[in-house]
Amino acid sequence: MKTFNIALIPGDGIGPEVVAEGVKILKAIESLDSEISFTFTEFSWGCEYYLENGRMMAEDGIERLRAFDAIYLGAVGYPGVPDHISLWDLLLRIRKEFDQYVNIRPITLLNPSLTPLKDKTEKEIDFLVIRENSEGEYAGAGDWLFKGKPEEVVLQTGVFSRKGTERIIRYAYEEARKSKRTLTSISKGNALNYSMVFWDEVFEEVGKEYPDVQTYSYLVDAASLYFVTEPERFEVVVTSNLFGDILTDIGAAITGGMGLATGANINPERNFPSMFEPVHGSAPDISGKGIANPIAAIWSVSQMMDFFGKEQWGATILATIKEILKEKESLTPDLGGTATTQELGDRIVEILCIQAAKEGVAPL
C-alpha cells in the first residue's frame, strides 16, 4: 500500500467548505482502492490567523510543509486583510519556496450547457495552459521612489531568467510531445522589447529539439480574442506568469466560470511538495451558507491523483464530474441547482463509486 501524506490548508471564506468535499473524495478512493491510503494534517493558516498573529502562516510553516507529498489549499483572502499580504505571504510564498514553477490549468468544457460561447462544443474547448509560476512580473522585484511626493515613481520589474524561461518552455514541449498535441506560445514581443523578445527567442531555440511538435506563436491580445472566438486553435499553451494568470480566467469564463476552475502548482523534480487548489477565491459573501460549489476543489483532487501517478483515478474523478453536471437538481445554485455543498459532495461520491466499478478501477 502506498500512503500519501497531504497537508490541508483550508484557508478563508468558502475554502474550508470546499476542501472538506475534496477530502471526502480522497477518503472514498481510499475505501475503494486497497493500494492507496492518505494521511491528512490540517493547518489553520490564512487571514484569520493573520489577524490574530500578524502573519499568514506559522514562522516555521515552510519547514513543517516540506515533508508532505502534496498541499491541498482551499482559498486565501478576506475583508480586512490587504490582498497583497494574503497572496504574497501564503500562496506565493509556498510557490516560491517549493519551486513550484509549473502552473497547470485545464481549459476543458465538461458540459455544453456551461459555455456562453455560441455553437462551441466540448471538442472545440479542450486545451491545457502551462503557466510559468515563479518569476515574470510576480517575482516581487521593483522599487517605490519618492513616495508621497509629486515626482513619485513606482517600478515593477519583470524577471525572466534563462533558467526559468527555458525550463517552463521545455516542460510544455515535453507535454505536447507526450500527448501528441500542438504547442502555442503566447507573449508580447512587439511591445515588451526585452522580456518577451527573450521569451520568443528561447521558445524558438528549445523548439529545435522538438521537430515533431507543431508550434504557433501569438501576441497576448490576439490570443485573448482567439480564446473567445476560436478556442479550437489551442491544444497546449505556454505563457508567462502574468499573461497566464489573465488568460486562464478567460478560459474559466468560457468553460462555466470560476466555480469550475482548478489549478496545480507543480515542482516537477519532486524535490518539494506540489500544491493543488481551486482558483475561485474565498467568496466571503457566501461563506457559511452551504451553497459553495466544490467541483473545482474536487477537480484539483483529480490533478493531485494524476501527479501521484494514479491517472486512472484522476480520469475517473473527471468522468464523475461530467456525470454530475447532467444532474441539474444535484448541483449548487450557481449552476442552477438546489443542492448544498455537502449534498453535491455526497452525490459525487455516489457516482464515483459507480464510475469506478464501471471503469474497472475498483469493485462495486
Describe this protein with a few key phrases:
2 domains, oxidoreductase, 11 helices, metal-binding, TTC_DH, 364 residues, Isopropylmalate Dehydrogenase, alpha/beta
Describe the structure.
The chain has 364 residues and is an alpha/beta fold. It folds into two domains: 1-98 and 273-364, Isopropylmalate Dehydrogenase, CATH 3.40.718; 106-256, Isopropylmalate Dehydrogenase (3-Layer(aba) Sandwich), CATH 3.40.718.10. It has eleven helices and twelve strands. The chain has helices spanning 15-32, 47-53, 61-65, 83-97, 162-179, 195-207, 220-229, 241-255, 295-307, 311-324, 341-359, and strands spanning 2-11, 36-42, 70-75, 102-108, 126-132, 136-145, 153-159, 183-187, 215-219, 236-239, 262-266, 274-278. A ten-stranded mixed β-sheet has the order 2-1-3-12-11-4-5-10-8-9, sandwiched between helices. Strands 6-7 form a two-stranded antiparallel sheet. The longest helix has 19 residues, at 341-359. Pfam families: Iso_dh. Belongs to the isocitrate and isopropylmalate dehydrogenases family.
